[in-house]
Amino acid sequence: MPPHLLRVLCPKSPTHPRGTDMHKDYRTAEIVTVSWEQVYQHTVALASQIAGLCAWRGIVAISRGGLVPAAILAHELDIRRVETVVVTSYEARVQGPARLLKGADGAGEGEGWLIVDDLVDSGATATVVRASLPKSRFVAVYAKPDGLAAVDNFAVSLAQGVWLRFPWEGNDLP
Question: Which of 25, 105, 117, 146 is catalytic?
């Protein structure tokens, strides 16, 4: 991955404002592909940031992108309880409004729970999920500048205009 597109192990920046444009079109963006090995290494780095912060009660994985990182974090942090939420916001690489389709009823208000996603882009998904789990901690493996205010911890920062392609998304791009 080209170094100008990412920085590894960047903590949350409290001074970076969250973007207000929740409708982004990434159809012509530069595509950066991450490998299974990179996702694993970056997620383990994220686990090391949050390991001692709390006696975690469980993980809430944001389906679908957060499922793989949530499984890695569950193993790394020895967390056995995993819930899922379903949020939709993208259609053919165009971001629209985030909508919660399924909540995590077993997580209560989220106290002691990690919300996990693969990427925070604009922060729209994080905002929707946090509304239902206000006492949780939101973590993502990858973060873009517009979403930094919405995430508590992340491992890798990306340029805003990049489209990140994950190994579980298959070979066919829309």
Answer: 117
